[in-house]
From TrEMBL:
InterPro entries: ABC1_dom (IPR004147), ADCK1_dom (IPR045307), Kinase-like_dom_sf (IPR011009), Mito_struct-func_regulator (IPR051130). GO terms for biological process: lipid homeostasis; mitochondrion organization. Residues 89-352 form the ABC1 atypical kinase-like domain. This is AarF domain-containing protein kinase 1. Pfam families: ABC1. Appears to be essential for maintaining mitochondrial cristae formation and mitochondrial function by acting via YME1L1 in a kinase-independent manner to regulate essential mitochondrial structural proteins OPA1 and IMMT. The action of this enzyme is not yet clear. It is not known if it has protein kinase activity and what type of substrate it would phosphorylate (Ser, Thr or Tyr). GO terms for cellular component: mitochondrial inner membrane. The lineage of its organism: Eukaryota, Metazoa, Chordata, Tunicata, Ascidiacea.
Length: 466
């Protein structure tokens, strides 16, 4: 397959990068920056370039799709023309052939045939992501229905070369457009990619996260079958449910959008502030929701209560894909929790202090805007608890993203690497709220977050913070 030849991939990357640069240079030449014609030409160039970038990600697959997914969630940094086009990568990714998948399984599980382990193996994947795809199967040993996650066969071999190509593209763009610096993204991806490519790391992350979240009986993580887990294969409990942004499924099953949003807020506040161990890739494909019947099915009383409507089923959130987690230092958690608590309580002095501690420098208002997804006018003047998020505010933020792009890049280049992944998590969660038509910053969410912040701060203040 020519797609997997490094020279072809490099040529495709270089040609796409040069094409995008030339498009902007030619489209915007001889046009006054403050004119309506300039804005229109720039928007059209954004749209064309976004489609070129999507085509590059789709054809080169693997690492490129992973980076494209990240860019698609960065509403505070990239123009809407880019994020709208690249968001398609959250639900669609190129597939590997069944023959390739069988090859990985046979090599990693040391078997002659897939039939040696599975009595049934669905030919069509139930989900395809940037680095792997998932097939439904049935174990031969005990008849359990399982989900089999298999890494795309060549993604690991190509990862280092792909990152070198993307580094080169980012450096070229920075040289031509100094205000557009995404080196921090390239560096963070290079650091995290090896961890995401090791499914034994993912399995350990899943186990630890399940332990941390056991306080919530409505959170469900898949049980692992360790005998069939390797660096490229992970076999786990098969869980059913609807994708969290599937509005038809939610409506059909009478699931309240706002309730789902609040549960997600609780879960991620617990991970970030209390445990400091956070799932950093919560895009819609990695979260499902479903109604859960009472699990004590052997209790006749419980069955009768459920039948009479006394004991109603509870909503359950299923969290998948545990490849990308970040361990947050106590120092970072202290300042990040304090920053949010200052924002919520409208403590501007505290906001500045803790934003500076997180690396904002004098641009602490900008960091507060990035963290909250709200305009500085709301954060610094009105208070985010007091003002609903509006379309006008959204437009203001998007317009500001282009205007303040050099400053945003500077801030993101200065904050700790921990902050970058937490911001990525925030981006995805805000994107879910948008897809569910939930008002950003609804009051109940701030109450839940504040509780987690205070719990974390009580514990952290008893320990030494550098």
């Amino acid at each position: 397959d020519l797609t997997d030849q490094p020279l072809i991939r490099a040529a495709r990357t270089g040609l796409t990068t040069v094409s995008i640069i030339c498009d902007y240079k030619l489209s915007l030449r001889n046009t006054a920056i403050d004119s309506p014609e300039f804005n229109q030409a720039k928007s059209q160039a954004h749209s064309r370039s976004a489609k070129k970038l999507l085509a590059l990600c789709w054809r080169n697959r693997g690492t490129y799709v992973k980076v494209g997914q990240h860019l698609g969630a960065m509403d505070y940094l990239l123009p809407g023309e880019y994020t709208k086009v690249l968001k398609v990568l959250h639900s669609k990714a190129p597939q590997s052939s069944l023959e390739e998948i069988h090859g990985v399984l046979k090599k990693d599980l040391n078997i002659e045939s897939v039939d040696d382990v599975f009595s049934e193996f669905c030919k069509t994947p139930i989900g395809t992501a940037s680095l792997a795809q998932v097939h439904k199967a049935k174990l031969k040993s005990d008849g359990s229905t399982v989900a089999v996650k298999v890494q795309h066969p060549k993604v690991q071999d190509l990862a280092d070369k792909d990152m070198d190509m993307m580094d080169g593209a980012v450096r070229l763009v920075k040289k031509v457009f100094p205000e557009f610096d995404l080196m921090w993204l390239a560096e963070e991806t290079r650091t995290n990619l090896p961890l995401e490519l090791d499914f034994l790391v993912e399995a350990r992350n899943c186990t630890k996260a399940a332990k941390n979240l056991k306080c919530f009986d409505w959170v469900k993580l898949p049980r692992l079958y360790w005998d069939y887990c390797t660096h490229r294969v992970m076999v786990m409990e098969f869980l059913e449910g609807g994708q969290v942004n599937d509005s038809d499924y939610l409506c059909k099953n009478n699931i309240d959008f706002r309730h789902v949003s609040r549960l997600l807020g609780k879960m991620f506040s617990e991970m970030i502030f209390v445990h400091g161990f956070v799932h950093c890739d919560p895009h819609p494909g990695n979260i499902m929701v479903r109604w859960r019947q009472n699990q004590q099915e052997d209790s006749k009383f419980k069955k009768l209560a459920s039948y009479l409507g006394i004991c109603k089923p509870k909503l359950e959130v299923v969290l998948l894909d545990h490849g990308l987690y970040r361990e947050l230092s106590k120092t970072f958690r202290y300042h990040y929790a304090s920053l949010w608590q200052s924002i919520i309580t409208f403590d501007m002095a505290g906001l500045e202090t803790h934003a500076r501690a997180c690396g904002s420098g004098d641009m602490f208002p900008l960091l507060a805007t990035i963290v909250t997804g709200r305009s500085w006018q709301v954060v610094g003047r009105d208070g985010i608890k007091n003002v609903d998020f509006t379309r006008e505010e959204d437009d203001e933020i998007r317009d500001g993203a282009g205007q303040f792009l050099p400053h945003i890049s500077t801030v993101l280049g200065n904050v700790p690497s921990e902050m970058l992944l937490v911001l990525k998590t925030n981006d995805h969660l805000r994107g879910l709220d948008v897809s569910l038509s939930v008002l950003r910053g609804h009051a109940s969410g701030f109450v839940d977050m504040s509780k987690c912040c205070l719990r974390a701060l009580r514990e952290l203040k008893h320990e030494r913070i550098d």
